[in-house]
Amino acid sequence: MLSKLKYLVVIGCITLIWSCVKKKNYSESPEITYKAFTVDTGTTANMTITFADGNGDIGKANNDTTRNLFMNYYYKDTISQQFVAFWNGSDSLKSGYTVHKPNDEYNGKPISGEVTLHMPFYRHSKKIKIIRYVIYMFDNAGHKSNVVTTPDLIVP
């Protein structure tokens, strides 16, 4: 009888704790944060960001190549000591990436996670040693995320 009572008390405590845990509520617009930047070689790097979306409509289908995440590249000018957007002759350099959804089971449900983007060319010259990126993304309904600026990234 005493062991049944202990069992019921333990189950009651677990139920009470579980019922007090709040589910995370995410905005319907994507929310992103910068997590990490790592250099693979002299010309390639990886950028990791975390994301959250309240209705799970983030990410494209596997066969869709529509770009939904964008990064603007800035470098620190050694003369002015100011960050300057790299100008490729006609426009500032904005790289677009396609982030795919993990699967369809998240449609209509809150989702969060992280994505790592491989960047084949992360700077325009090896002479550049301090860079920064401004990052944002869109969900499938066209909602734009917050805009995130990386910290100053010192590269080899």
Question: What order do the helices and strands follow?
Answer: HEEEEEEEEE
Reported CATH architecture: Sandwich
**Could you tell me the radius of gyration in angstroms?**
22 Å
Q: Measure the end-to-end span.
A: 69 Å
How helical, in percent, are the residues? Answer: 10-25%
DSSP helical segment count: 1
Q: How is the CATH topology named?
A: Immunoglobulin-like
The number of domains is 1
Query: What is the β-strand count?
Result: 9
Strand content: 25-35%
How would the global form be characterised?
Answer: elongated
Name of the CATH superfamily = Immunoglobulins
Unreliably modeled segments: 5-10, 15-22
CATH class: Mainly Beta
Structural class: mainly beta
Main beta-sheet strand count, sense and barrel state:
6 strands, antiparallel
Overall mean confidence score, pLDDT: 82
Give a nutshell description of this structure.
By secondary structure, the protein is mainly beta.
What does this structure look like?
The protein is mainly beta. The chain has a single domain, classed as Immunoglobulin-like. Helices cover 12% and strands 35% of the residues. The strands form two sheets. Strands 3, 4, 5, 7, 8 and 9 form a six-stranded antiparallel β-sheet that branches. It has a three-stranded antiparallel β-sheet with strand order 1-2-6, with no helix packed on it. It is elongated. The termini are far apart. About 9% of the residues have low confidence.
